[in-house]
Every structure is written in structure tokens, then in C-alpha cells.
Amino acid sequence: MTVSSGSSGWYLRRLSRMGPREVGGRGADAVRRRRWRSAPPPKCPGAAGARFTAVLPPGAIDAVPPDAAKRLVAEADRLMAGRAGFFGVERDDLADPDWWYDPRTGRRAPGGYAFDVPYRDEEAVGDIKQIWEPSRHQYLTVLAAAYAVTGNERYAERVAEHLRSWWAVNPPLRGVHWTSGIELGIRLLSWVWIRRLLDGWPGAAGLFEDNPVAHHQIWHHQRWLAAFPSRGSSANNHVIAEAAGQFAASCAFGWFPASARRRADALRSLERHLRANTFGSGLNRELATEYHGLVLELGLAAVAEADAAGVPVPATVRLVLLRMTDALAAVVDDRLRPPRQGDADDGHGLVLDGAGTDRWGSLLATGDAVFGRLDWWPAVTGADVRTPLLAALIRPGIPSVPLGRAPSPGARPGRTTPSDGWPRPAARARRAAPPNGGQRPARRGQAPDLMAPAAGGDRPVGAGAPVSRPARRPAHFADAGLTVLRGPGGIWCRCDGGPHGFLSIAAHAHADALSVEVRHDGVDVLADPGTYCYHGQPEWRRYFRSTLGHNTLELDGADQSVSGGPFLWTRHARSRVLVADACDASDGGTARWCAEHDGYRGSVHRRRVELTAASRELRVVDEVRGPRREVRLAFHLGPAITADLAGNRALLTWRRDGEDRSAVLDLPGGLSWRAHRGETDPPLGWYSAGFGRREPATTLVGTGFTDGARTFTTVLGFQG
Length: 720
Known about the structure:
The chain is an alpha+beta fold. About 30% of the residues lie in helices and about 20% in strands. The strands form eight sheets. Strands 12, 15, 16, 17, 18, 19, 20, 21, 22 and 27 form a ten-stranded antiparallel beta sheet that branches. InterPro entries: Chondroitin_lyas, Hepar_II_III_C, Hepar_II_III_N. This is Alginate lyase family protein. Its main location: periplasm.
């Protein structure tokens, strides 16, 4: 059962996932909100003599590649005409935006005290994502970047006009834009970069450092973030955005009496939560790939501010960003597309580029500039604006393990942290760990713990000890339960045997245990359908995060994990990987993977996957042990795939780069198979390429029963 967010049932379920410390903290937050409602917002302290010194070094703008600059200017010109697209909705009203308007529903958010606005209620407010997104002001960073590249003052003037408009309409604590910390954090980061990119424009100082209204807004954003951090079971990517924005503003706009304290507090929070949100292998613990990208962007932006301001950051911050970058390089396919795992809302930490810029190629290019690429990294052929600007600020080089004791390889997050700065196991974390939680030695192709020193071992290390980086492309990430099998011709297969999301609510997880995702030369063949929406459309939210909405097996019409709301899971399926021989099948061998989960009480679902290079064949064997139950086995095809289903065999065809490609999907004969496409009651047969967008795609569903121990074998053979 799914309970609507904000209902009494939802609140009870949400409360059940909190610990005593979180309950106490949220109680204190509630008291503070009531107190703030009854008192007018305090006046901002004076910032006499404020100056902005965190400028780009000479030559930084000159390093922007011409192709990237051309895309940037084209995007800026589109914005100047008032046109922009957000989550599948094209707008033409941004020349003079209504900051509280939702173009999808036509509703306008109510005003009043921020914490009284029911932002989760689409009937009362509209689609909150549509309202919030322009007010992250990332389209203004694009306009500011266009000014920096061209020197054309009309871009700068539009930025100033929109900032002054936003500040006038959104005074502190009034309205929907003061309800969510992640929005305030990202907005602060945007303002820092707007001011940096407008340096040289005669009106820049008058817009920021000489402007009491700007001081008032910046200070109240920082006050809000200091008062209401995401905590406990909500300390996911949101808390990192809050800390990164607070830190960036405290470095670049360090004009207030509390700036030094807030900078130090934000840095401590950033360091702590970057480690907590990241597996030792470098993958994000939310197991939602787009949030891996968001957190990496935010972390790199925060380090850029630290280096620009001369503020030392703990070596662990750079270490986490290094291992996240190497992990990203390891999991992308031949076209630089990462897995489509878990929730995705098209969120970015810092936007400086025009449409058509590859996000993941940009992140790898930045990683190359900051840390240096490894020999096995995929080639990045595109160019972007953000990389040379970040690289101009960030001190390059490989971080070193700080003085203390390095964690042993395979160490897991979820630890208490002693004074030497390295994690130790917490008893609660040990009890809660999934069956496969790091107890096995590294398998062939397994990602190492990149926090470990090069020599390995749990031993004292001196300051400056070198950090281990993988000598070959990792394929198995034991702590995250993610395995990538690769074959000839760009065959790429992701196998999911990991935890069900992060923290007690697993907010951005999907019920996708043991699912597979298969591509051929970058084309989705067996696709993860994506996310599509968060608020306001509960039937679609349920579908896209359901077990039936993934390439895995469902029993008795129920999800493997139990949902208590759109961002809340009350019972988590536990998976464990049994075999991960992820040798590269493109070399002529056979890669093997096997895992099982306990999400269906009384039954165990085990899945084996084999990718054989010689036959270009992927074999998926599903075994169900337990009492008689109804089975549905789903395979979701990508939107480019045409399927001709006859009995239990489907001929799959598509085109890539002007060439015809095909595969044969032999489905288990013990099930009755049907093709579904674009159905709405209930939803089935859909693909979401991005947040707010969906399109029909073919889903093949086999129905039947299992009793005792039943095996279902599926074979996907690529023909060309």
C-alpha cells in the first residue's frame, strides 16, 4: 500500500523510520518554525566594505573551447527570447517570469508564511518541481557565462533584472521558495557563480556587494540553512546541496560576522555527508545514478570555492570526489551513458553550458583536469564550458591519505568516526547490514576501496601516503551490489544485487532487486524505464518505482519492498550477490553473475546471468523457491526497439547510426507472454527519458505460477 505524502498515515509511517535523535531534532525544528512565524525576520547585519575577490584567474575564459562557447551562446539567446524547457514543458514566458507559476497545471502557488505552504499538494500549489526549477537560477548562470564569454552586456543586464525581480517577490520566509533546503543551497551556489561570471561588468558590484537587498537575501538564505539542515533519514543528496551552497556563499560572500563560523560548520557537514553518502568503491549510496552526478557536481563546486578562497579542506573530501569520478568512468557504457538506476529528476549542481552538452562526459573531463585520467577510462570527445572554469579554480593533483589509520579495503560506510578521522563500524550498522555487506574478499574485476593507501592493509600511514586507484576498469562494486558485464560490439549489462537504497526511508530507491539493464552500442535494449514524476501523479509514481516497472520478477502482484509513500519504503528487500565473475566477455570469455533477494516472505528469488562473447548471447535464469504463487516476469524494451512477439519468441529490431540492428529474445515457455505498450489503466509499457517526460515503449510480460522450485530461462541473442 502506498500512502499519500502529507496524510496522517504517511506521517505515522515516516515517524516509524526515524531514530530518537532525529525525532528530537525535528521537534526542535518545529518549535523554531513556530517561533519564526510570530516574529518578523531579523535585519541583516551590516556588510560595509564588502568586496568580491573569488574571481576567475586570468586566461580562464580564454580556455573555453569554441564549440562549447557556441552552444552556450545559442542557449543564452534562446533564454533572452524568454524560451526554456523544464521537465518536458516548454516555456516562452521567461523574459518576465512569474516566480510562483506552474505552467503544467496552470496553478499559482499561494503566498504567506513559507512553512504553511503545502508544497506537496499539487491541487493547492501546482507542480512544485516546475515552480522551483527556474528559481534555482541555473538558467541565470548560463546567461552570466554567456556574458563572460562574449562581453555582451545584454546578458548581464537580463541577469540583474531577474535577480532583482526574484528578490523583490520572494522576501525571506515568504512563499514556496523558502520551504526546501536543497533549493536554497543550489540557489546560493548559482549566485556565487553569477557574481563571478559577471566580474568585469560595470554593474556587478552594484548588484551584489554594494546592494543591501542582495546582502539581506544571502544572509537569510544562510540563516535558514543553518537552522534547518536535512537530518537523520533525510540526510541524502539534499544535505550535501545545503552544505555546498552554504560553504560556497560563506567563502565567496564572507561579508558577515557569522561567515567564518558558518563556513567551518558547512565544511564539516560537507565532509561528513560526502563520506556517508558514498560507498568505499566510489558509487553513491542512494543507488540512483543521477544523484551520483549531482553530488559529484556539488562536491567539485565546493572544492573550487575552497581553493579560490584559500580555505583548506580535509583530504577526505577530495578523496571521495576522486573515487566517485573513477567509479563513474568504470560504469558508463561505450557512449558514456551511466546506468539508469533509481530516481532521476534532471537535477544539476552547477550549470554553465548550453543544450547538447554531455553531462557525464563533462564530469569525466573535469575529473581528468583535476585528478588525471587512468589508462582504462573511456575517451571523452566532447567539450564543455564548466570544465575549464572549474579547473582554473581547483588545485589539481591526487589527494593523499591523511595522517591516521587508513580503512582496510572493502570497508563500508555507516560508521562512527573517531578522532583520527577514519570510520569505525557501529554496532547498529553491523546489525543492519545486508547479507553481502562487504564480508567477502574482492572478486576478479571488483572495485577497490579507493580510500585505502596503495600498500593496502589496516595500518598506520603517514601524511601524504599515496592513494590506491584501480589499475584496470572495475566491473563489480561489492558494497553497492552493482556489476557491469561487457561483451563484443558494445554489449553492456548492469546487474543489480545491492541494498535497497540509502538510510531507513531509501527515498530515491526503486523496487528493482535483481533487475538487469542491457544496451547495445549505447541503445537501450532491455531498459530501465526511468522515473517520470515525484509529486502529484501517484499512480505514475507507483508504476515507475514498482517491481513490475523493472526487468525483474514479481510475485503475487506485489513489490519486493513495501512502500509507505512517494519517498518512503517501510520494508526493504535484502539482496546478496553470490557470484560476480565479471571478466570482460569482449575478450572471448563468459562473464557470470548470480544473486538472490528475500523481499517476498516465504519465497526466495535467485537470478543467474551469463554473457558469452562467442555467441553474443545473454542468458538470464530466474529460480523461485517457495510455495505456489503467481508470477509476472517483465522485460522493458527501449523506445527505439520494435518487437515482433510470436508465442515465447520476440524479434527485436532497431537502427543505430543508419544501420539495422537486431536481436532475438527467447522467453520462458512456462509463462504466457503478452506485449504491452502505452497503457494507462493501469500504467504499463512506458519509458521516461527525463523527468516530466514519458513515451510509449514495449514491455513484454510473462504470467504464470511457481510452486516449490521453478526455473525460468530467458536468452537474448544479438545478431547484428
